[in-house]
Amino acid sequence: MTTTTIELKPSSNPLSDAEREAILASPGFGRHFTDHMVTIKWTEGRGWHDAQLTPYAPLSIDPANMTLHYAQEIFEGLKAYRRPDGSVATFRPEANAKRFQISAHRMAMPELPVDVFVAACDALVQQDKAWVPAHGGEASLYLRPFMIATEVGLGVKPANEYLFLVIASPAGPYFPGGVKPVSIWLSEDRVRAVPGGIGFAKTGGNYAASLLAQAEAAAHGCAQVAYLDAVEHRWVEELGGMNLYFVYGDKIVTPELTGSLLAGITRDSLLKLARDLGYEAEEGRVSIDQWKRDTENGTLTEVFACGTAAVITPVGTVKSAGGEWTQANGEPGKVTLELRKRLLDIQTGAADDPHGWVHVIG
């Protein structure tokens, strides 16, 4: 355990109960933010220091801030849920903290200790506990820990100063309207990441690279874009912001981690939960030709996407420049719904947690 202590400097003018409740009635996703944030500085030769919880406020950034020019930035996403007894818990924060360290190492940034990451999230949730929606449904408090370089200068090198922050936003369903299959645009001429690159790091550059293809997907009436591998352009990797799962009856397969895919926390959890429920669950390779062929011959019974924000979302129609096909008659599949319920029940405290994933804050 480190000795970092978070100094509490709460707001003297938080949002009123009435204003907060109005927001919680229809929060959307990432549109509103709680009253506070946590900040911790890192300076070369000094390490981590000045950990504080303060009122949520804009940052003052010099135009020559190195993040603005060389994109040294990483982030995470996790949720806090209200439990049946009124307490609040996060889901697998240590896993997010460890992935945050992996991302930091790849981006030549300092690695925040796991316990400090978790303590920062705990402090913000505890302070802004009233922002966690009531138990039931999918409503949650979405936490966004992130880190940026703060050194001022235009020399191309790792910065010598950084700022770690945690902010929080009440969240409803990522895709409003219930559990409805989403349409997917298959990007055949653009790739998300390459082996040896930064695809496994949760850094903004990966998402920036996906925005043009995402816009193309929207132009074709699709909610998400699916990417193929960068070498052979035939192996399915992931969506712009979610991992994929393929269901073959009682067997589920998710694309294996190649260095260009993000190791999703939800992805990893579902591998374990599927086995708990008696399914054969494995990592493997699925080609785009196999996806289309097995859908048409009926052996591929369901496809779903998963991630912290979207939880589990069934895939309906897949469109590409060469045509389109539909999964499971455009309806959510049995395995998809069963896994979705099991995961949410554990996260919200409606079911036992056999793996010790739930981190109760209070």
Automatic annotation (TrEMBL):
Keywords, sorted A to Z:
Amino-acid biosynthesis, Aminotransferase, Branched-chain amino acid biosynthesis, Pyridoxal phosphate, Transferase
**Pfam families given for it?**
Aminotran_4
Q: What class of enzyme is it?
A: transferase
The signal peptide annotation in the UniProt record is none
- Per the record, the coiled-coil ranges are none
Instruction: Cite the InterPro entries for this sequence.
Output: Aminotrans_IV (IPR001544), Aminotrans_IV_CS (IPR018300), Aminotransferase-like (IPR036038), B_amino_transII (IPR005786), BCAT-like_C (IPR043132), BCAT-like_N (IPR043131), BCAT_family (IPR033939)
Q: Which cofactor does it need?
A: pyridoxal 5'-phosphate
Which GO MF terms does the UniProt record name? branched-chain-amino-acid transaminase activity
Known catalytic reactions: L-isoleucine + 2-oxoglutarate = (S)-3-methyl-2-oxopentanoate + L-glutamate; L-valine + 2-oxoglutarate = 3-methyl-2-oxobutanoate + L-glutamate; L-leucine + 2-oxoglutarate = 4-methyl-2-oxopentanoate + L-glutamate
Q: What is its EC number?
A: 2.6.1.42
**Pathway where this protein functions:** Amino-acid biosynthesis; L-valine biosynthesis; L-valine from pyruvate: step 4/4; Amino-acid biosynthesis; L-isoleucine biosynthesis; L-isoleucine from 2-oxobutanoate: step 4/4; Amino-acid biosynthesis; L-leucine biosynthesis; L-leucine from 3-methyl-2-oxobutanoate: step 4/4
Q: So what family is this one in?
A: Belongs to the class-IV pyridoxal-phosphate-dependent aminotransferase family.
UniProt-recorded name of the protein = Branched-chain-amino-acid aminotransferase
Read off the lineage from the record: Bacteria, Bacillati, Actinomycetota, Actinomycetes, Kitasatosporales
